[in-house]
């Protein structure tokens, strides 16, 4: 049994930033550690990104959407290394392909009083109650701060901890082979130059989101918008969902991906707005105006997510309501809420089984929905560009 004694901060918005934020607070690294909010950590790390992948699991008759809201969302090690360098913190990565060694590495860190960030397969976390079809496809990051009575103690965005059997956590760490059972520990090198770190993070985001990539920068949203109505591209929505099969699962994952899966709502744009408000008092008062722009952008993304499950269609409205109920309980109660969310998960499963094959809208209604979502994405792309332009003007 080993529990980090000073680990008392729980919860957050985004997995990668919340995990490091709470570890820094547990260690009290330097005089600034308590004042480094998760929003500040996000901004210093390079802020926002853009990404959208449509996974087609034909053997399971479902489609799942994955989003990248953080800068360098496909390169978490690079993100952590840049962030830690700016914070005057050294990250140490422990990797192994052997489960026994992986467990020994975890226990050794905890016995030394070191909470760790663990790379895990999201679908292997039992409290999230995800379908088996997505196992091995969705990376996630949690803080492990103890092992007690055969259970691993986990901080994963909720206000209270989760408890997972040791064997299940070992499976979650090992499921994605490229993760190599990875853990990250951190040690402080000195006091960060906070103004310099903030400006480095802002310019990092500007450089990243100014790229022309249709996969990893803002044009991905413009491309996605066009794919909502393009009838010629094999990956366009009218083609992929020509028979309306699997559309229910895709729209459900739009809502979850924008609002609930490690974003805090609004595609994480609200968290970045909080960073800009904090940064305004340290480096540039004009950033408060830009914060308001990003806060409006977050609301615009939330409205888009809401539109993906229209209230006018009862099964879709019910789906959205159940997702909100389940999310709120889990984030407030951690493992204490598992009994309460189980019936909600079962209701969602029943809706999925029925409507992923028999979608409750006509072809004409679906075409109208696709056009509306495409128009919203076009507006969102322009709003993203305008927000980035305002950020550039504020700091250049």
What this model shows, in words?
The chain is an alpha+beta fold and 396 residues long. The chain has two domains: 2-36 and 89-188, Cathepsin B, Chain A, CATH 3.90.70; 211-395, no CATH class. It contains 14 helices and nine strands. It has helices at 15-27, 38-44, 76-87, 99-111, 166-174, 194-209, 219-227, 237-240, 247-259, 269-280, 287-308, 314-333, 338-355, 363-395, and strands at 2-3, 52-57, 62-67, 89-94, 116-121, 139-148, 151-155, 162-165, 183-188. The strands form two sheets. Strands 1, 4, 5, 6, 7, 8 and 9 form a seven-stranded antiparallel beta sheet that branches. A hairpin with a 6-residue loop joins strand 7 (151-155) and strand 8. Helix 9 packs parallel to helix 12 and helix 11 packs antiparallel against helix 14 (363-395). The mean pLDDT is 94.
